Amino acid sequence: MLSHFLAVAATLFIGSHSVEEAKSITLSSYDRTAKEYKSKNNGNFQPELMKPFMDHIRKGDQVLDLGCGPGLHVKELSKKGIEVCGIDYSPAMIKIAQHQAPKAKFYVMDIQSLSLQTKFNAVWASRSLHHIPREKLNGVLLNINKILTDGGVLYISMKKGTGEGVIADHYYEGVKKFYSYIAEDELVKELDLAGFDVILSEVKAINSSYNPQPHVIVLCKKRPAQNEQVS
Is residue 206 part of a domain? Predict the structure, then answer.
């Protein structure tokens, strides 16, 4: 009985689901709807959302798209002569992305377990980190910090709100996905703790039928190490 209690206590639950169950449900939903996701989102590219990020990127820079989905943003970045790597946990999404941006590098990878040797000048994380449980967010942000070059920039957009759990996505026939909602001040605090200085932050309704929920959008820069600040 005691061993059973300890095993249950060591498992993080979100509502009625464990973290691993929530991750598996979300992955299955994206794999199942990958083609539909591409067809519905390819026409929704909004360059004005990328402009502040692009102002910090130069031709030849190494950029990581964290949770790249079907490769919409990777495709646009590649057009500008930027070296892009896209990762996503969904094999079906990566397969589509490879066709959309054949010159880019892609890997099937869990955001919570980044294993990349490359240092990147910038990381683009559009609508991906709201699938990470709040308890895990700081660890993910610290890992992003590690793979950025000094002064590297990070763009994040996450659904604004409170709470987290597995909910139905009615835009895709009710498939279930895990979402963790966040407030602007909460995300800014998380980034500060992970070693980032905020360049801009705002709450914005993304102009898309798929994203009626306002998003917290933050552009930030990797903070110099303490010894570099002193010198």
Answer: yes
